[in-house]
């Protein structure tokens, strides 16, 4: 996937050189980088809402420090390394077992966080395609008329249908011995809101960096492009969607200056992926050190999970 993305990116980028990209990076106004940093920070704050919602739905009342540590460190790992279940899922398992969460419930937390992400992606894409239908311009000669509007209505109809189903279908599901219920209608609206706000802040950070670039579409259209790039990068399972994310962003904005777009994406990766990844690794290291110290003080052989009494 990395090789194909690199080949496609090279074909689309044409004669853009590294010197061109570096020049665009140096030319990016400092205040836009600062605003993008703030937007990134707000996105990670909203991401805590994913874990808050999932744990509350399952009946756990975990303190905000633990929620924030689990959310931030797991998302920074999965954003950078890919394969969310193995990377972010492992971090959540390590943190939440110490807080007294059952392993089966941790798996459900991961699924609920993922579903919140998808609801936000689908909703934003649907609204963007209906309100600002220009995504298919690069393939207009092959695409049928009003393709964007039809796709947008279809996506929004899917979100509405699921919300109505969640509000009316309150039966309990059973998987082997594990029983669970899907979020109700009100909770589903909360999921949509959390996912939408997160996407708006994350995509908004990149859009701020793209403001000096000529040929960039309006914000709603760009958020749809960003959503497609995020989904494609995640499905590719390349580390952090590297190469795949860039390919989609550049490919769906054919009129934009490619050197400027690649420079903005490089700065975005620094702000949204690399710096949070380093901070997330530090959070994990501190928590592991504290757990090891506590285990040794208690005379335990390792930093194994503790009792559920620490969930409050």
Describe this structure in words.
With 312 residues, this protein is mainly alpha-helical. Helix content is 71%, strand content 2%. The chain is built from 11 helices and 2 strands. The chain has helices at 2-13, 18-27, 30-57, 64-81, 88-98, 103-131, 147-168, 185-210, 219-236, 244-251, 258-297, and strands at residues 173-175, 178-180. A two-stranded antiparallel sheet has the order 1-2. A hairpin with a 2-residue loop joins β1 (173-175) and β2. α2 (18-27) crosses α11 and α8 (185-210) packs across α9.
Give a brief rundown of this model.
The protein has helices spanning 2-13, 18-27, 30-57, 64-81, 88-98, 103-131, 147-168, 185-210, 219-236, 244-251, 258-297, and strands at 173-175, 178-180. The chain is mainly α.
Structural features:
single chain; 312 residues; mainly alpha; two-stranded antiparallel ribbon; 11 helices; disordered C terminus
């Amino acid at each position: 996937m990395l090789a194909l993305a690199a080949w496609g990116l090279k074909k689309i980028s044409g004669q853009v050189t590294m010197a061109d990209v570096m020049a665009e990076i140096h030319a990016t106004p400092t205040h836009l980088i600062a605003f993008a940093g703030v937007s990134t920070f707000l996105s990670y704050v909203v991401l805590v809402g994913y874990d808050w919602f999932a744990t509350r739905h399952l009946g756990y009342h975990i303190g905000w420090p633990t929620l924030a540590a689990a959310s931030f460190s797991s998302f920074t790992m999965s954003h950078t390394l890919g394969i969310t279940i193995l990377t972010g899922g492992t971090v959540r398992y390590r943190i939440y077992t110490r807080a007294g969460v059952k392993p089966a419930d941790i798996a459900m937390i991961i699924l609920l966080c993922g579903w919140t992400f998808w609801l936000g992606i689908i909703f934003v894409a649907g609204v963007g395609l209906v309100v600002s239908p220009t995504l298919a311009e690069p393939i207009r000669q092959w695409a049928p008329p009003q393709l964007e509007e039809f796709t947008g209505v279809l996506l929004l109809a899917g979100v509405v249908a699921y919300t109505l189903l969640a509000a009316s279908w309150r039966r309990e599901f059973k998987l082997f011995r594990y029983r669970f219920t899907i979020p109700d209608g009100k909770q589903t609206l909360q999921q949509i809101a959390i996912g939408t706000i997160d996407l708006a802040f994350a995509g908004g950070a990149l859009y701020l960096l793209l403001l000096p670039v000529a040929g960039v579409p309006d914000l709603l259209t760009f958020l749809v492009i960003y959503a497609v790039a995020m989904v494609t990068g995640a499905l590719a399972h390349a580390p952090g969607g590297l190469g795949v994310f860039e390919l989609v962003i550049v490919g769906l904005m054919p009129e934009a200056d490619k050197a400027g777009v690649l420079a903005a994406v490089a700065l975005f990766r620094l702000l949204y992926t690399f710096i949070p990844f380093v901070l997330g690794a530090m959070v994990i290291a501190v928590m592991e050190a504290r757990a090891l110290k506590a285990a040794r003080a208690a005379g335990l052989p390792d930093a194994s999970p503790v009792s559920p009494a620490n969930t409050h």
